[in-house]
Amino acid sequence: MCASALSKLRHVMFAVFLGLVAIGASLAGAQAQSDPLSSWTDGATKKSITDFVARVTTQGGADFVPAEQRIATFDNDGTLWTEQPYYFQLAFAFDRVKAMAPQHPEWKTKQPFKALLDKDMKALGASGEKGLLQIVAATHTGMTTEVFAKEVLDWMATARHPRFNRPYNSLVFQPMLELLAYLRANGFKTFIVSGGGIEFMRPWVEKAYGIPPEQVVGSSGVVKFELMKLAKVEFIDDGPGKPVGINRFIGRRPIFAFGNSDGDLQMLQWTTAGPGARFAGIVHHTDAEREYAYDRQSKIGKLDKALDEGKTKGWTVVDMKRDWKKVFAFEP
Amino acid sequence: MCASALSKLRHVMFAVFLGLVAIGASLAGAQAQSDPLSSWTDGATKKSITDFVARVTTQGGADFVPAEQRIATFDNDGTLWTEQPYYFQLAFAFDRVKAMAPQHPEWKTKQPFKALLDKDMKALGASGEKGLLQIVAATHTGMTTEVFAKEVLDWMATARHPRFNRPYNSLVFQPMLELLAYLRANGFKTFIVSGGGIEFMRPWVEKAYGIPPEQVVGSSGVVKFELMKLAKVEFIDDGPGKPVGINRFIGRRPIFAFGNSDGDLQMLQWTTAGPGARFAGIVHHTDAEREYAYDRQSKIGKLDKALDEGKTKGWTVVDMKRDWKKVFAFEP
Fold it and tell me: Which residue of B13, B20, B215 to mutate against A (max A Cβ within 10 Å)?
């Protein structure tokens, strides 16, 4: 075949290809209509999400946002997975202390390690924040980031949640998995912005949430060139630290953010303070039966100011019991 | 049409669609064979790039790397754009001092500002690193990140490079633009890892390089919740800081990295120290006619240790004069 005929054939084939891509896209759209958010109860909460996505993705609409600006940020603990009876990263730290104890005979007499090994929760509580930091330092520092990542994955594969008796990473919220996938199918780029440790999350979040490590913003310890984790806090990605972390890592303001506690308030404020269409969501834990019920009085994931502000400002407050047909994928 | 017939039609159409996607992909491949790296001279340098990409993208090959792990990092100054006669961010700072001078009458008598305004380069040089930091502090802090971004864009639209008399962002290297696009077409995710200021780069790199702000790692000042830039250095993303920055922002080791100076040495070392196929590239500025020629003795972009190590270890050292048919897009 002569070159020009080949070139012409290519052009024709390419036009056919583009036409079929369009058909394929509309078929995909038809499939999507089989409800990408099937674990969400039909109602105002779900509608606030689908309405927002329709507004910012409608070409030529007043609120249209180009795909590269569709940044969506999610808190992790309590928003994407359970955070009770205490943060799972803490459960990891406690389990690491137990596993490391044979190499640390001095812990038998040294607080807060003694209390933890003796399961003396009263003494452990008495060691306070200082004790907690000692436990985190002992279990989270002094190794390379690669060794630490392996420890996290090994723990995730073997440890079990005390109430559900399942791996911790199976306690991710099914409706939120659907929401993440739905946003990505609509051109959003999804990020985690969590007060949890960045090195604790990165090894497993890609598999759990489809969010790659480079889209995780979290708190961090100081790391040196050899990528040795040092016992010095570098950045606390919580409260006012969340917009700072988003600015540092992402470099643009999200148009969509989801949290569940007062630690997410500034992220939600900053997200909604930008121009154009904005979405702020709060997971309100109202379901003691399927998960947990807590808010203003809780030590973990206290939701007080953000709940009031969310109601005043018309943010989407998810009532877990009412709005989610299914909380976890493993439910019957 | 009954539902099951419709469903069947959808399945058939979808199969056709998938088939045509495959044809489209191979056509795209055929188009790519019209040379995505056309500004690169045919030879060993170019071949080292295409060979590497072929190795890591060949399904079933010994060196195959899944797309999500195809992380490629690029230094910016001197690697993606020119850095002579001095870093462009410095030119920005100098121009800002001139623009801000009417609001700062005290600068008429205060060094290093006086020297800069008097164009007294000797006195400016005498003010040393301390003077430089004063200029950076005066021009880069005390405003919000959004105001600063606008200042950068305004400057980029009006300022001209002293030798080429063109906007600074037109002094991006055409062969590197082709390389970035080629890598992305092969499933790589491209990042900038630069000693330059992260807030200085983010406003313009997406348009210039197709790299979104969230894929830029750079040095940063401290930023508070109101996203006010404070006069305190937070992170220097240079030398040993580059692997630290990559770990913090990206969270995985690149398999492909490109630099041009000793400040990139640790990034190249860390990239190549991982298992499997690895690519390290160095831009050697050897073309005084079309751009600049400098290496071991240069104050800007000194290339000495990395040049020796690159030659010893078989890294790809780009000889600009020999390997690039075209340096800038505006060349005839």
Answer: B20
Contact residues on chain B for A23, CB-CB shorter than 8 A = 13, 17
Q: Write the single-letter amino acid at B194.
A: S
Q: Which residue of B has its CA nearest to A211?
A: B68
Residue ending a domain, among A125, A158, A191, is A158
The answer as to whether A19 is a domain residue is no
Same domain, B112 and B225: no
Residues A148 and A181 in one domain: no
Chain mean pLDDT for chain A: 86
Residues B250 and B217: beta-carbon distance below 8 Å: yes
Q: Do A243 and B227 touch (CB under 8 A)?
A: yes
Nearest-CB residue to A213 (from B220, B244, B251): B251
Tokens of B327: 């340096």
pTM of the model: 0.78
DSSP string, B245-287: HHHHHT-S--SEEEE-SGGGHHHHHHHHTSSS--EEEEEE-B-
Residue B196: CB atoms within 10 Å: 21
Say yes or no to pLDDT of A6 above 80. Answer: no
Among A202, A243, A249, the residue with its CB nearest the CB of B214 is: A249
The answer on B191 and B107 residing in a single domain is no
Q: Which residue of B has its CA nearest to A146?
A: B252
Same domain, B102 and B80: no
Q: Mark the ranges of chain B whose per-residue pLDDT is less than 50.
A: 1-32
Residue B256's pLDDT is what? Answer: 94
Same domain, B127 and B173: no
Does residue A246 surpass a pLDDT of 50? yes
Q: How far apart are alpha carbons B38 and B53 in whole angstroms?
A: 16
Is position B159 within any domain?
no
Residue A8 in domain? no
Question: Which among A132, A158, A184 is the end of a domain?
Answer: A158
Q: Which domain holds residue A244?
A: 37-84+167-323
Chain B interface, Cβ < 8 Å to A: 10, 13-14, 16-17, 20-21, 23-24, 27, 30-31, 68, 71, 145, 189, 191, 198, 202, 206, 212-216, 220, 223-225, 227, 240-241, 243-244, 247-252, 266
Query: What does each C-alpha distance from B132 to B89, B97, B100, B149, B204 come to in angstroms?
Result: 12, 12, 16, 21, 24
Task: State whether A273 and A302 are in the same domain.
Answer: yes
pLDDT in the model for residue A170? 93
What is the Cα A214 distance to its own chain's centre?
13
Write out pLDDT tens, residues A111-151: 999 999 999 988 888 888 788 888 988 998 888 888 999 99
**CB atoms B215 and A212 under 8 Å:** no
CB contact (8 A) between residue A13 and residue B23: yes
Q: Both A226 and A283 in a single domain?
A: yes
Nearest-CB residue to B251 (from A23, A216, A250) = A216
Q: What is the ipTM of this complex?
A: 0.71
Residue in the block written with tokens 């100011």: A305
Q: Which residue did the predictor score with more confidence, A220 or A286? A: A286
Number of domains in chain A: 2
- Does one domain contain both A78 and A227? yes
Question: B187 CA to chain A: closest CA distance, Å?
Answer: 14
